[in-house]
Amino acid sequence: MAVAWVVAWVVGVAAARDATWAVSVAVAGAEAGAGIELLNYFNKLQTFLILSGVSLGGLGLGWLIGATLQSMGVELPSR
User: What 8-state DSSP symbol labels residue 75?
Assistant: First the structure.
């Protein structure tokens, strides 16, 4: 529960500065809390595979959405 409060505070502070950074911190905090909870039910290897799969799935989905939007002619911001 403490992790959720810390993540909420960091996200609140960071949201005014950079939304991308705030989302990254929120996801990392959620995965850290999920990792602790998963260890109650799964061993370390299974927990690693679950969290890695979720992270890679999110990256892949983001890439797929970005590629789809670009092919439709939507101009995306670049950094």
Answer: P
Nearest partner of 23 among 34, 31, 14, judged by Cα: 14
- 35 and 47 in contact (C-beta within 8 Å)? yes
- Residue ranges of domains in the chain: 2-71
Percent of the chain that is helix, strand, coil (3-state, to 5):
80, 0, 20
pTM summary value: 0.51
Helix 19-38 / helix 2-15 crossing angle, nearest 10 deg: 170
- pLDDT digit of tens for each residue in the chain (79 aa)? 455 555 565 555 554 455 555 556 666 666 667 777 888 888 989 988 988 999 999 999 999 999 999 999 998 887 6
H or E stretch including 62? helix 44-71
